[in-house]
Amino acid sequence: MSTNETPATPHLSATGDLTGAGKRSVFDRLYTGTGAFDIVGKRKRWYLIFGLLMLVCLGSVIFRGFNLGIDFEGGTKISMPAVSASGEISTERVTEVFSKTLNAEPSAVQKVGAGTNSTIQIKSESLSVAQVTSLKQALFTELKPQSPTGESSAAQISDSAVSGTWGGEISRQALIALIVFLVLVTIFLALYFEKWMAVGALAALVHDVIFTAGVYSIVGFEVTPATVIGFLTILGFSLYDTVVVFDKVKENTRGLLGLTRRTYAEAANLAVNQTLMRSINTSLIALLPVIGLLVVGVWLLGVGTLQDLALVQLAGMLAGVLSSIYLATPILVDLKMTEPKFKEQAKRVELRRANAARRQEAVADLDLDDPDAVDAEVRRERAYAVATSVPARTPKATDARRGAKPAGKPTGKKRR
């Protein structure tokens, strides 16, 4: 090892881990970030897991599809107060009246809000004017809804026709925004970092998009305009966490080709470990408001818009954190290792470690009481120094190992 390569961690092993790291607690290893977790080294395992996950999500999107809301497919929406003189009106009772009146099932019946201001929203396929009039009269006759002021009349039940054209326009604009975003992100990453980092970040971003879409398809969440808005917001979060990790990778690999301490994969794995605690803390802090939206919006207020927004952000943020740690950096390492210069640097690292291991074995087996053995060891060290440009031990150090005083030039005048 050349003299300008001072070890940053004296007990760093060949894989970039600390010797004895397994004896320390998980939280200690997370906090110190010294490469104790071999994330990049196990990248084939992560590829398999994420690959299977992507196949499931893509299969659900292709064969199962999405539960599109009324804003995308078009239809009729009816709104009425959720309270009557006899108490709250249940969604089951509304569904029963709808089915009995029109001999059909509504697309969705949900309660929005809480207390006297709560309402029930009915979404169905497009209804004719006669069907809407008949349904409103049946709902008033059967359920007697009344306003917060106590007024009870058929006028308290409102209806509106929704065209699917509006939802389609939203989808088209969202797709345009996504394409523009990806193009700008690619240009930025390629200029600020490098091309392979841009490819790794985009691969992680595509994973987040497919995962979030697959969750909505598998679970059957209703896709609304709020879902599309939340879908676009998760892209920035995913990219932010990836950029933080890549910035540390760039710092750790600066001037790496001239060194033989670590390979590119080990330096990248150290960067992931150094930013791992930050990624966890950032994701937890970001998820707390989202969970708050989910709890308040769904269980307390029953607001469908907040539910759609919170669910897409929850799924997208979780996917973003996992992909930035387990997917983006491993992909970057595999792409970098296709370059010959990094392959050669990895071979030099392996050669230095193999030579160091052989030297340690030779020293351990050396009999210091045998002068011939010591001389042979000195010759081996000098040959190694010539081959690897590492200074060998001086004769002074060799004499010290034998237990003799070093030979030096005579000082003073010769006695007569």
UniProtKB/TrEMBL annotation:
One of its GO terms (biological process) is protein targeting. Residues 153-336 form the Protein export membrane protein SecD/SecF C-terminal domain. It is found in: Cell membrane. It comes from the Bacteria. It holds the Pfam family Sec_GG. GO terms for cellular component: plasma membrane. Residues 386-416 are annotated as: Disordered. It is a multi-pass membrane protein. SUPFAM superfamilies: Multidrug efflux transporter AcrB transmembrane domain. Its main location: membrane. GO terms for molecular function: protein-transporting ATPase activity. Signal peptide: none annotated. InterPro entries: SecD/SecF_arch_bac, SecD/SecF_bac, SecD/SecF_CS, SecD_SecF_C, SecD_SecF_C_bact, SecF_bac. Keywords: Cell membrane, Membrane, Protein transport, Translocation, Transmembrane, Transmembrane helix, Transport. Belongs to the SecD/SecF family. SecF subfamily. Part of the Sec protein translocase complex. Interacts with the SecYEG preprotein conducting channel. SecDF uses the proton motive force (PMF) to complete protein translocation after the ATP-dependent function of SecA. Forms a complex with SecD. Part of the essential Sec protein translocation apparatus which comprises SecA, SecYEG and auxiliary proteins SecDF. Other proteins may also be involved. This is Protein-export membrane protein SecF. It comes from Actinokineospora globicatena. The gene is secF.
